């Protein structure tokens, strides 16, 4: 067994230089052989780059193993031929008749059922409804000019009238202003979202002759509670839709008197 070389075995390396190398962290010949001459000269005092290269070269010679002699190649043996296996006798099966493949049945096309058109929709041009829907998506929410700034200002739109108003002049960065370009087609303008034709009613006699499939009634604001209930009862009998049914049924006079009697007894 050969011993590992030490720093003292490196030719041209004295004991003082050995101590300096150990202080610099180079304690083995292998580490000396792998170090760079510039870095080694900077770490060790009194060692130039030329001297460092000589030491590193000597260390590399000691570390590198000697070239081995080429071994004589042994003659390769000829590969043995595989023995021929006896062939298996395969019995021929009776010829099977090819199965008849039935063609896949094509899926039947479903007939499109005709769309049921409501009577109230038959009176309206559907193209105009599509135009109004597209314009409604692009329409902004019209607010008061200072509604975003002051809590005391409501969101309801008010026309801007200032002489120097940037909103009135439609400058950039200002809120959208109501203008004719946002209007819907005239034929469906002001139509109820349910697409019923609104009919204002002030008395029960005004309901007569209305079609429940086309018309919907709106009770006038000046109609009293008693007459309002009569209109609602008649509309329910005719299956008419009331857009503003309003207050619930009134309390009868008999119920009021019974409540007063109960209070007096208490």
Q: First CA to last CA: what distance?
A: 123 Å
**Helical coverage, percent range:** 25-40%
Largest sheet: 3 strands, parallel
Number of helices: 8
The SSE order reads: HHHHHHEEHEH
Give the strand order, joined by hyphens, for the main sheet.
Answer: 1-2-3
Rounded mean pLDDT is 80
Shape: elongated
Structural class comes to: mainly alpha
Number of strands: 3
Low-pLDDT runs of 5+ residues are none
Strand content: under 5%
Radius of gyration: 53 Å
Question: Any overview of this molecule?
Answer:
With 266 residues, the chain is mainly alpha-helical. Among the domains are: 7-63, Orthogonal Bundle (DNA polymerase, domain 1); 138-183, no CATH class; 192-266, no CATH class. The protein is built from eight helices and three strands; from the N terminus they run ααααααββαβα. The chain has helices spanning 15-23, 29-34, 37-43, 49-63, 119-122, 126-138, 225-237, 253-265; strands at 197-201, 215-219, 241-242. The chain has a three-stranded parallel sheet, covered by helices on one side. α7 links the parallel β2 (215-219) and β3. The longest helix has 15 residues, at 49-63. The model has no long low-confidence stretch (mean pLDDT 80).
Outline the secondary-structure elements:
Blueprint: H1 15-23, H2 29-34, H3 37-43, H4 49-63, H5 119-122, H6 126-138, E1 197-201, E2 215-219, H7 225-237, E3 241-242, H8 253-265
Parallel strand pairs: 1-2, 2-3
What distinguishing features does this structure have?
3-stranded parallel β-sheet; 8 helices; 266 residues; DNA polymerase, domain 1; mainly alpha; 30% helix
């Amino acid at each position: 067994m050969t011993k590992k070389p030490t720093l003292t075995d490196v030719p041209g390396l004295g004991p003082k230089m050995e101590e300096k190398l150990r202080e610099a962290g180079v304690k083995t010949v292998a580490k000396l052989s792998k170090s760079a001459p510039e870095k080694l000269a900077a770490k060790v005092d009194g060692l130039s780059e030329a001297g460092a290269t000589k030491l590193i070269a000597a260390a590399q010679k000691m570390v590198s193993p000697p070239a081995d002699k080429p071994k004589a190649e042994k003659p390769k043996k000829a590969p043995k031929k595989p023995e021929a296996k006896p062939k298996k006798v395969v019995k021929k099966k009776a010829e099977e008749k090819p199965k008849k493949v039935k063609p896949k049945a094509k899926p039947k096309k479903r007939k499109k059922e005709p769309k049921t058109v409501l009577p109230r929709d038959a009176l309206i041009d559907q193209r105009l409804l599509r135009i109004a829907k597209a314009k409604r998506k692009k329409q902004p929410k019209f607010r008061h000019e200072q509604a975003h700034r002051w809590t005391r200002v409501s969101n309801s739109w008010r026309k801007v009238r200032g002489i120097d108003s940037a909103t009135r002049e439609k400058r950039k960065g200002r809120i959208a202003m109501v203008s004719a370009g946002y209007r819907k087609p005239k034929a469906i303008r002001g139509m109820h979202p349910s697409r019923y034709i609104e009919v204002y009613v002030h008395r029960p006699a005004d309901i007569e002759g209305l079609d429940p499939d086309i018309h919907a009634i709106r009770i006038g604001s000046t109609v009293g509670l008693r007459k309002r209930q009569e209109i609602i009862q008649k509309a329910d009998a005719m299956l008419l839709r009331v857009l503003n049914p309003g207050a619930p049924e009134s309390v009868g006079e008999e119920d009021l008197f019974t409540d007063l009697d109960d209070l007096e007894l208490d």
